[in-house]
Amino acid sequence: MSFVHSAGSAALRRRIAIGLLSSVSVMVAMTPAAHAQQAPAAGQVQDSLSNQADSGVTGDSSATGNVQAASDAGDIVVTGYRRSIEESLSQKREANAFVDVITAEDVGKFPDKNVADSLQRVPGVIIDRDGGEGSRVSIRGLSSDLTLTELNGNFIASADSGDPSRSFNYLLLPSTLIGSVEVYKSSEARLDEGGVGGVIINRTRRPFDLKPWSGNISVEGTYADVTRKVEPNVSGLVSWHNEEKTFGLLLGATYQERTNRSLSASGDSWHWWTDDRTTQPATDVNGKPYANDDAINYWNDGQNGGVSTRNGKRYTGYWAPQSVSETILDQKRKRLGIQATAQMKPFDNMTITANYFRFQLNGDYTSSTIKIPEWGYGNFFTGGALDRSGTVLTGANFQVPAEGTGCRVAGNLCTMETPAPQDTYTREKTVSNTYDVRGDWSHDRLEASFVVGKTKAKGGPSFQFYAQAKPRNGTVNGNSLSAWNFTDQSIAMQFSPDIIQNMLNGVAQIDLGSTGSGFTNSSISQRYAQVDVTRHFETFIDSLQLGVKWRDGRIHRETGRFEWYSDAANTLRFQDTPGGALALPEIFFPNSLGNIAGGFETTAFPAINIAKYIDYLNRTYNGPVRVAEPQNVYDIGERIWAGYAQLNFKSDRVRGNLGVRLVNTRQSGLSTDVLYYENDYCQNGPGGSFDPNRPLGEDGNCLVIPQSQRELRVFSQNSERKSYTDILPSFNISWDATSDLLLRGAVSKVISRPNFGDLAGARGLTFNADPFVFDRKEFGALPGWFGNGGNFDLKPFSAWQYDVGVEWYFHRGSVIGATLFRKDVSNFIVPVVIDLQQEVAGETVTVQQYATQANGSKAVSQGVEVYAQHTLPFGLGAQLNFTFNDTSTADVSLNGSSVGSSPLVGSARTQVNASVFYEHGPVLLRASYNRRGEVVRGLSSGLNVYSDPYQQVDLNAAFNLIDNLQLTASVINLTKSEERAHLGNDTKDRFISNVYSGRRAYVGVSYKF
Description:
Elements: H1 10-30, H2 49-55, H3 80-94, E1 99-103, H4 115-119, E2 125-130, E3 133-139, E4 147-151, E5 154-155, E6 178-184, E7 198-204, E8 214-224, E9 230-241, E10 247-273, E11 307-308, E12 314-315, E13 318-347, E14 350-373, E15 381-386, E16 393-399, E17 408-409, E18 412-413, E19 420-443, E20 446-470, E21 472-473, E22 476-477, E23 481-486, E24 491-495, H5 499-504, E25 509-510, E26 519-536, E27 541-565, E28 601-602, H6 610-620, E29 622-628, E30 635-650, E31 654-678, H7 707-710, E32 711-736, E33 741-752, E34 763-768, H8 770-776, E35 784-789, E36 797-811, E37 814-826, E38 829-840, E39 843-856, E40 859-871, E41 876-887, E42 890-894, E43 897-902, E44 910-920, E45 923-932, E46 935-940, E47 943-947, E48 950-962, E49 965-972, E50 979-983, E51 991-996, E52 1000-1008
């Protein structure tokens, strides 16, 4: 079998690079200091971080230019990256809580290209990627929805296509506008609630923090192996204030063009295939039946669900995917970021700061998929491969019989419908706007501040269309062989060598039942106002902080579609016309899609040229016409009142805080159940709905009944409301046991509210009637109800969390430390896909493969973080950290019934980060290694989905050409790593997905003035 892509020696290269990097990092980090230098005692340093969430003040790495002033003659002078990590470590030490800090090297110079990529190097933090870029952030084994991301201490809205989410999309946030990032792993009463995993505060710069007429301009080009394109990234920032420092302005902007190309494979909708679920129930690879058998998805409900080959061999009693697919996703992104900040000082003790931020992401996305569904088991199945246990199907072969045999006899000429090229085009725009005004006033020992602001994000497709083709025309086959098998946790496919030429010769049709449009746009907004008062004392009680905050959130979702019509009145869709399935050769790419650098293997990749197909539709029919669905209402309201009191204490060696936060949450939801009744599809033959002699159109397909006559849509609104109050105590303490040894402890109660998309009980359910299934069975149509929905009854995720830590600061800018943590969690939320009994239209039915969210019972997440940082006198340094996280398994219930058990979703058992750098004179070199262990995902067919361990090496370099002019270069994903997932914890053979997003290189210049 000859494949387009072969894996080669990528794994060996990864092991060599990782081994070398890890060895060097350990040696450097563990090397004793050549000249021990006593660090200042933390008790003697102002606890700057304890006030930052209120004042917005952070240490600014650029305020003193590119050199840190030495306090004593003979001190080492540090610059650039080394100063950045030393300053971050200093702020970590001075904090009362468990905090990690990332500081920019200079104005416009964040350590990584993406804020999320920098965050993944923090102990206990893992990220999800989109197109190879960090997009979502999780802390200490909890999902990204449980991480609260803020901008300057307040919620920042982001919106994507699909349902709205609390999880912030870091693709929106330009790293060049960020001065520092704080990761709070233990809570304080003054911090906003909502982050059970933790709170991440991104801080931007302000004009009073920088010198007048200072700033930065950078120009960069990027190249990826999967796109083979060079694309630009331009950013700049300028800051000014008058000599009296009573008025200042700061303007910053960044613009980036980037083409991301992801190569992925998937095994979808796993079932247990058996002839009799009673005598041959589902088992794991060790032959052990499942305790939650009712949650397992059985093919054909476990009755006669096995399959036979063409020669009669019977396969029964095994796991198999309903379909397998390979996808190429091209994402053309344009990212714009704008910051405008004004500061004024009307009085000596009063400062007012006004901010405006706009983050915008425009995207043109094209997805090309080839799929082998289960359609061929009836007539074409010639054999399959099983794993060692004989319980997992790992490959299947489908072949058209010779003419005159099997199903290729006169009067019963079957056709192979696979592979099914599916292509989607999406034009999308996401915009986040934030406005706020902050006032800070002080008099003697009294400080007061206020903030008022609004954040709003809108996102989703402005246009979306998808189409599917079939390699056949009438009774003529364009493909006679479809085969797939799992290889190295990916997929290899094989097809007839002439498939593409056959399709270009007209042996192809559009599958009208799988062609159309549907989109979801969402918006999230929040208005907020906060007042804080701090009274300082000259006693063991350092200060008392009191505050109140009001937030009013609104979430809106709207759905719709685009249609092309064949009549002037726009009533007859082109899919319902006799010629609608016409597939002209011009709408296909003339060659197999290439440049498959990873992700999967295939002998051919036929694809629809979706842009040309849309052009054809525009020329031939009326459209595209945007059809809104105003009946599908989805509006959520969330109003929050919070008040807190926090007592900060400090002596020579002991400091900390004790506080309580009282929060009232009121949520209301107006949503819509949408029921789709698919009653029929083809016009009937002389014998009625089940007569195979249906009338055919000129394209060889059955004549389709117009959608308005065969499909019924029922809209039913739901109105829901609830309110709850939480009391959230917190305690943090730090003890300087010696001048360089610090001990910490913390205990607090925290909550996270359910995701916005789950705060309404809206369901989308489809019923496939028997006549519809008869007409569409060759395309995988199954009888009965299917769908998904929210769960307004979800309870807030809550946890008691405990932290104990030790930190040894054995040299300036150096540390060895460890933290023990534990979270006793309740009501954690798990995504599930199960067959579930529900009441629909007044009767109880089984909804198959129903996707929703469910609450888990109590569980424990506990572990340890170990970290080290050190730099040798000649400029070679390293940062290391390791996190071990152990989570218990808890029962998951839905509507009062158990649907299985699951560890905490988003949890990873291990995580390792290692960075080694050399900085001396004009040269900076840095290599970073990141590895996260297996991550627990949601439930599917009663089993957890697991993301496989993932590891990646990145390189960064910089060279100062002249004063203030720097040449930079980076390589991201040097190891060409791929992200994989599987189903169940007993084997990796139940393949779920594999994604390769490429290796990317950057080269640029940066000028500071």
